[in-house]
């Protein structure tokens, strides 16, 4: 995709579970664009300030300067129209509006590179990645290593906590699992056991 001539726009999607190298791959592609002297702008959602406010950060601690937006639609307000390459990390926190925004940016000649979780903690497709996959010119699916068995893993296992769709965390709450080792019902169970244990202890 890097060597298309002229400024025809396009959309690239990098998706997979947590710890699969999405941010590393996004940063690698954006660095190459910078080396090619392209104007690059990077956005991440306000919800994800786990490691840094003004940077995207990989689990291996690669970093790149980024701007924070509240939703996908805010990217249109913040984009410098001279930018040639637009990177978006944690797209799964950007909402449905990112689909239209990505299309408009690509239609206006920009290279849009989007990274995000393709499934949620229950293994369900995570908005807005499915639509972006359908509309993209290029798709990369990254897999993590299942921490249980060492096979390639496509799932993000939530280890404890709420049933909310979005609970921001890292290795403290989530781990990578393969299809066989994935246990989608486990957070609820763990929570109940924990409460039962506490009640028993209080008696
Ligand atoms: P993502 O953006 O998909 O969450 P990152 O790019 O932030 O992933 O981090 C990928 C890095 O995480 C790997 O290069 C590796 O150093 C580290 N890592 C930690 N746990 C795992 C795992 N279970 N499988 C693969 N990589 C892991
Ligand atoms: Zn496994």
Folded structure, characterized:
By secondary structure, the chain is an alpha/beta fold. It has a domain at 10-142: Rossmann fold. It is built from 5 helices and 12 strands. The strands form 4 sheets. A 6-stranded parallel sheet has the order 5-2-6-7-1-8, sandwiched between helices. The protein has a two-stranded antiparallel ribbon with strand order 3-4. The protein has a two-stranded antiparallel sheet with strand order 9-10. Helix 2 runs parallel beside helix 3 (97-107). It is globular and about 50 Å long. Bound molecules: adenosine-5'-diphosphate (ADP) and zinc ion (ZN). Residues 16, 18-24, 58-60, 144-145, 147, 176 line the site of adenosine-5'-diphosphate (ADP).
Can I get a quick summary?
By secondary structure, the chain is α/β, with parallel strands linked by helices. The chain has 5 helices and 12 strands.
Core attributes:
alpha/beta; binds zinc ion; two-stranded antiparallel sheet; Rossmann fold; 12 strands; binds adenosine-5'-diphosphate; globular; six-stranded parallel β-sheet; 28% helix; 24% strand; 203 residues
* CATH classification class of the domain at 10-142: Alpha Beta
Instruction: Sum up the overall morphology in one term.
Output: globular
Under the CATH scheme, the architecture of the domain at 10-142 is 3-Layer(aba) Sandwich
Small molecules in complex: adenosine-5'-diphosphate, zinc ion
Distance between the termini: 64 Å
The largest pleated sheet is described as: 6 strands, parallel
Please tally the helical runs, counting DSSP H or I stretches of 4 or more residues: 5
- CATH topology annotation of the domain at 10-142: Rossmann fold
Structural class, judged by helices and strands?
alpha/beta
Q: What is the rounded Rg?
A: 18 Å
């Amino acid at each position: 995709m890097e060597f298309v001539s002229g400024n025809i726009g396009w959309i690239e999607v990098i998706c997979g579970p947590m710890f699969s190298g999405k941010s590393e791959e996004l940063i690698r592609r954006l660095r190459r664009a910078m080396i090619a002297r392209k104007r690059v702008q990077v956005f991440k959602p306000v919800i994800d300030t786990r490691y840094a406010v003004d940077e995207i950060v990989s689990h291996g601690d690669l970093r790149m300067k980024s701007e924070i937006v509240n939703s996908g639609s805010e990217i249109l307000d913040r984009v410098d129209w001279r930018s040639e390459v637009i990177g978006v990390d944690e797209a799964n926190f950007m909402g449905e509006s990112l689909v239209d925004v990505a299309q408009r940016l690509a239609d206006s000649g920009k290279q849009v590179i989007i990274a995000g979780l393709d499934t949620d903690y229950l293994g369900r497709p995570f908005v807005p990645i499915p639509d972006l996959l359908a509309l993209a010119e290029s798709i990369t699916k990254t897999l993590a290593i299942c921490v249980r068995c060492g096979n390639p893993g496509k799932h993000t296992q939530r280890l404890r906590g709420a049933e909310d769709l979005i609970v921001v965390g890292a290795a403290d709450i989530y781990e990578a699992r393969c299809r066989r080792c994935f246990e989608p019902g486990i957070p609820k169970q763990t929570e109940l056991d924990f409460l039962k244990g506490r009640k028993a202890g209080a008696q």
